[in-house]
């Protein structure tokens, strides 16, 4: 693992602002002296995350997630702590030198699958330039694919099944890895005498990566000469341990930086459309490799915190897909507009026919979802039929209410009236347009869902846990308090608190007494969240306060012991043993009274 000097980490932390970092991913809203936003770590619709400017921490009061600016980037990007430091340094322009050779990637159980896919990609790239791939190369050239574009997207050619089987055998590629990566047909034990059966053959191949850039699958197009009613134009990797089409967006790992730079994400229908955008110099294009967008894909889009442009075909299938996306995007609280163009061409066809300027011009001509819906739903409802017209009007009126503000809504209500004769401007909903719009947080989604509370956040804290949290605050403030707790009490009843105490002891042993340093060291989310709670509470630490914590914990420990003895006294069959337990109980009661007397007399000295 790369080592970044602590001085650099501290300097980056002091120069960066957590509000700026989080707002580069999510819209934030000022609330008093602090900020709030939708929590990206659970299905949140009512802003549950609070960002403290003074303490430079974030905390979700629904799911319990919390940390500092480094841990936020770490969780959002699913990267290591050193990588998050490097990312924040780039955000603020801090001159951090890191020797990339120091990076040692963390081992993953999927490494064999990534490795075999990378080897396969290299093989298909080689075959595209060979005699076998000549027809595929000619087709790509006819579609205006440049050598640079082919290299960027790692486009290749999967030759005949027999040629691939020979290559896989010659290279001694592991059969299990080939099968689990979706490169050979499942359902065959592939004994020593059986020939491997590749999944892709006689097709142009385009690699698919996850959001971290790991190779996970392939989308493959047949050659025009093979295209027919019984041959699908495209086939994708089937679901594997690393490939789930509902969890990814094609080209997301490349488009992410371009989207943030250009403040726009363009969503198209397929991989070839993404490449069509790239031909025109638009690098912020992504595609879902399926018709319906999932919650996971919406989270990837929302993570970028940029406006979205939807560029689907103008044919019925494309318009239906745009309608589905629009409803899913509203549910997820994503701001978007839809390209309005009547050419009937997708981005790739548009580039081939009219060039890059035509693609840019098309993308700049967008309309709100309400306007798109007004046009699209006229093909779904017969407006000459009263019931259809009423249903159409109700759907559009609801979209106006959800997505338009008080200044935009009247014009669309008028359009709706002109189309249907239904007037919604005097309804109760329209009169409350502004208030309702604010309740949607400008995100098109009313707060109808309850917050999700994860088990790691206790709904009610008992007295002992409260005292233990207070003791941990003292231990964070003073090494002497930490040593005294270890000597006087020794352990915490709460597992998270006990784990955090071990981190605190190590922090002092390593002579780095800083909660920020501790935040970076903690690997367990629930323990880090507890540390955030302690930093947020920030009590006034004193010897008297610490003394009171110890007494409360000791008293709670004795109460627990008394309860155990009560149970044993009631259940044990031997009378002599029960009497011994009664005597022990009396001793504990006396000890408990002594503790209370000690507390009242304030005799405690460190």
From TrEMBL:
Keyword Repressor: no
GO biological process, one term: DNA replication, synthesis of primer
Cofactor binding, per record: Binds 1 zinc ion per monomer.
Keywords: DNA replication, DNA-binding, DNA-directed RNA polymerase, Magnesium, Metal-binding, Nucleotidyltransferase, Primosome, Transcription, Transferase, Zinc, Zinc-finger
Matches recorded under InterPro entries: DNA_helicase_N/primase_C (IPR016136), DNA_primase_core_N_sf (IPR037068), DNA_primase_DnaG (IPR006295), DNA_primase_Znf_CHC2 (IPR036977), DnaG_bac (IPR030846), DNAG_N (IPR013264), DnaG_primase (IPR050219), TOPRIM_DnaG_bac (IPR034151)
Coiled-coil residue spans: none
Any single Gene Ontology cellular-component annotation: DNA-directed RNA polymerase complex
GO terms assigned for molecular function: DNA binding; DNA-directed RNA polymerase activity; zinc ion binding
Domain Toprim: from-to ranges: 263-344
Cofactor(s) needed by this chain: Zn(2+)
CHC2-type ZnF: 39-63
Protein EC: 2.7.7.101
Enzyme class: transferase
Catalysis performed (reactions): ssDNA + n NTP = ssDNA/pppN(pN)n-1 hybrid + (n-1) diphosphate
Family per record: Belongs to the DnaG primase family.
Protein purpose: RNA polymerase that catalyzes the synthesis of short RNA molecules used as primers for DNA polymerase during DNA replication.
Domain notes: Contains an N-terminal zinc-binding domain, a central core domain that contains the primase activity, and a C-terminal DnaB-binding domain.
Assembly information from the UniProt record: Monomer. Interacts with DnaB.
Stated name of the protein: DNA primase
Organism: Ileibacterium valens
Gene: dnaG
């Amino acid at each position: 693992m790369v080592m970044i000097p602590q001085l650099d980490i501290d300097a980056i932390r002091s120069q960066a602002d957590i509000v700026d970092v989080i707002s580069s991913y999510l819209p934030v809203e000022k609330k008093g002296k602090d900020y709030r936003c939708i929590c990206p770590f659970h299905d949140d619709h009512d802003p549950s995350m609070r960002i403290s400017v003074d303490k430079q921490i974030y905390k979700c009061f629904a799911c319990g997630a919390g940390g500092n600016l480094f841990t936020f980037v770490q969780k959002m990007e699913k990267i290591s702590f050193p990588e998050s430091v490097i990312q924040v340094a780039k955000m603020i322009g801090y001159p951090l030198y890191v020797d990339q050779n120091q990076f040692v990637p963390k081992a993953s159980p999927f490494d064999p699958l990534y490795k075999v896919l990378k080897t396969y990609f290299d093989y298909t790239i080689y075959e595209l330039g060979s005699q076998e791939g000549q027809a595929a190369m000619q087709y790509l050239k006819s579609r205006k694919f440049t050598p640079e574009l082919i290299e960027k997207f790692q486009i290749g050619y999967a030759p005949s099944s027999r040629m691939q089987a020979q290559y896989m055998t010659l290279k001694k590629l592991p059969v299990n890895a080939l099968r689990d990566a979706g490169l050979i047909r499942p359902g065959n034990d592939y004994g020593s005498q059986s020939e491997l059966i590749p999944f892709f053959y006689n097709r142009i191949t385009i690699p698919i990566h996850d959001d971290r850039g790991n190779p996970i699958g392939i989308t493959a197009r047949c050659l025009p000469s093979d295209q027919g009613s019984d041959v699908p134009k495209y086939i994708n990797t089937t679901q594997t341990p690393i490939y789930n089409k509902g969890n990814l967006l094609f080209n997301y790992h490349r488009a992410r930086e371009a989207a943030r730079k250009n403040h726009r994400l363009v969503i198209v229908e397929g991989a070839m459309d993404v490449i069509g955008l790239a031909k025109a110099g638009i690098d912020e294009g992504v595609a879902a490799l399926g018709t319906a967008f999932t919650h996971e894909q919406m989270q990837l889009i929302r993570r970028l915190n940029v406006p979205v442009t939807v560029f689907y075909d103008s044919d019925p299938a494309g318009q239906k897909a745009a309608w589905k996306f629009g409803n899913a995007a509203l549910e997820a609280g994503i701001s978007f507009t839809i390209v309005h163009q009547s050419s009937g061409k997708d981005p790739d066809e548009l580039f081939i026919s009219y060039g890059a300027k035509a693609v840019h011009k098309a993308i700049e001509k967008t309309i709100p979802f309400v306007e798109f819906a007004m046009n699209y739903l006229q093909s779904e409802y017969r407006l000459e039929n009263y019931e259809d017209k009423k249903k159409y009007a109700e759907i559009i009126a609801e979209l106006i209410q959800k997505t338009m503000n008080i200044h935009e809504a009247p014009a669309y209500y008028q359009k709706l009236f002109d189309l249907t004769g239904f007037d919604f401007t005097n309804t109760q909903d329209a009169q409350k347009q502004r208030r309702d719009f604010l309740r949607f947080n400008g995100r098109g989604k009313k707060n109808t869902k309850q917050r999700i509370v994860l088990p790691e956040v206790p709904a009610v804290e008992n007295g002992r846990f409260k005292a233990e949290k207070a003791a941990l605050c003292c231990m964070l403030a003073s090494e002497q308090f930490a040593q005294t707790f270890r000597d006087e009490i020794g352990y915490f009843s709460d597992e998270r608190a006990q784990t955090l105490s071990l981190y605190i002891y190590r922090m002092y042993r390593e002579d780095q007494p800083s909660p920020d340093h501790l935040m970076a060291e903690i690997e367990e989310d629930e323990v880090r969240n507890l540390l955030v709670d302690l930093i947020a509470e920030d009590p006034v630490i004193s010897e008297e306060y610490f003394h009171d914590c110890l007494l409360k914990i000791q008293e709670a420990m004795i109460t627990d012991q008394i309860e155990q003895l009560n149970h044993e006294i009631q259940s044990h069959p031997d009378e002599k043993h029960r009497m011994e337990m009664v005597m022990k109980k009396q001793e504990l009661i006396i000890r408990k009274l002594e503790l209370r007397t000690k507390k009242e007399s304030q005799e405690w000295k460190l």
